[in-house]
Design a protein that fits this description.
Order of helices and strands: EEHHEHEHEHEHEEEEEEHEHHHEE
Distance between the termini: 15 Å
CATH class of the largest domain: Alpha Beta
CATH topology of the largest domain: Peroxisomal Thiolase, Chain A, domain 1
Bound molecules: oxa(dethia)-CoA
Number of strands: 15
Strand content: 25-35%
CATH superfamily of the largest domain: Thiolase/Chalcone synthase
Structural class: alpha+beta
Radius of gyration: 18 Å
Length: 319
């Protein structure tokens, strides 16, 4: 029994906000600085009334349409987010209600930018156990809500969006291997160290990051976990057709590809269009590459995530 992706979908809210638009909004930065340091040219920002579940709904509808199944057939919803609509209920349950699905298992996963890779791995295990047949796996974020717009070192990097896949039980190979890791001793280099308690925000409700520490950590672990996943599947790195990495920074992506001895012509890059959308970034990039025809049936695809926690992981699959 395999778990196979049968549909992908994504959604970016509103209009693209360019780097020059940020300068016009009063942020002391430049298109040259942002593009040369990160590769980001634009990001999308959710409207005030739009929550993660709204973005997730649009992406999910597109993935369900591609899979050709009705929302009512889904028996598992795993949604990765660090920007949930509420403290509870989970954004997965809110998405379930918006989709009109009743009875499926639904829960959120919190692994920050590795969230989608974590969620996909969890869903795969449900399906391979035989307990569930049709899963909706989603990454959805409104990171614009947790950015300190006075901190130019972080606010230019992130954006809002959602991506989703339908994962179904199949006799044909789908997900070939997965590898997940975390090391909580690095929690301080990327965090939103705040809380709501007694009706007040306690601590700091904004994203804080030691960019250079994150950069070094990400490059090391992304290459390591990709090799671990290849070994588990007995697939050589040069057999990978497409690497779909977390879209945070083009320099991290290039360094990872180099360590894996993969040419950039085998790497899907969409960070220029939407910045770092955390748990949404991997399915956003996968959806773009499926819809523009680069990713084709039967190809080997490596998905990779890394983020706060610290967490990291990879999924190798046959599409
Ligand atoms: O999902 C994981 C999420 N995180 C990441 O992927 C982040 C990984 N890290 C990075 O991508 C990079 O470390 C950054 C892009 C965040 C920063 O690049 P850097 O080359 O490490 O720059 P820096 O933080 O050392 O800052 C260099 C200079 C500083 O000025 P001085 O002190 O040299 O005069 C900053 O004040 O750049 C300045 N700076 C900016 N200038 C214009 C910082 N942010 C900006 C900005 N515009 N937005």
């Amino acid at each position: 029994m395999f778990a196979r992706i049968t549909g992908v979908g994504s959604y970016l809210p509103g209009q693209a906000v360019s780097n020059d638009d940020l300068v016009r909004r009063g942020i002391e930065t430049s298109d040259e600085w942002i593009v040369s340091r990160t590769g980001i040219k634009a990001r999308h920002l959710a409207e005030p009334g739009q929550a993660s579940s709204d973005l997730a709904l649009e992406a999910s509808r597109r993935a369900l349409a591609m899979a050709g199944i009705d929302a009512g057939e889904i028996d598992l919803i795993v949604l990765a987010t660090s920007t949930p609509d509420f403290i509870f209920p989970s954004t997965a349950c809110l998405l379930q209600a918006k989709l009109g699905n009743r009875g499926a298992v639904a829960f959120d996963v919190q692994a920050v930018c590795s969230g989608f890779v974590y969620a996909l791995t969890i869903a795969e295990k449900f399906i391979r156990s035989g307990s569930h047949k049709k899963a909706l796996v989603v990454g959805a974020e409104v990171f614009s809500r947790i950015l300190d717009w006075q901190d130019r070192g972080t606010c230019v990097l992130f954006g809002d969006g959602a991506g989703a896949v339908v994962l179904e039980a199949s006799g044909e190979p789908g997900i070939l291997a997965t590898a997940l890791h975390a090391d909580g001793s690095h929690h301080g280099i990327l965090s939103v160290p705040g809380n709501v308690s007694g009706g007040q925000v306690t601590g700091d409700p904004f994203l804080r990051m030691d960019g250079q520490a994150v950069f070094k950590f990400a490059v090391r672990v992304l290459a390591e976990v990709a090799h671990e996943c290849c070994e588990a599947a007995k697939v050589a790195p040069d057999e990978i057709d497409w690497l779909v990495p977390h879209q945070a920074n083009i320099r991290i992506i290039e360094a990872t590809a180099k360590k894996m001895k993969l040419g950039m012509d085998k790497v899907i890059v969409t960070v220029d269009r939407h910045g770092n959308t955390s748990a949404a970034s991997v399915p956003l990039a996968l959806d773009a590459a499926v819809r523009d025809g680069r990713v084709k049936a039967g190809q080997k695809i490596m998905l990779e995530g890394v983020g706060g926690g610290f967490t990291w992981g990879a999924v190798l699959l046959e599409f």
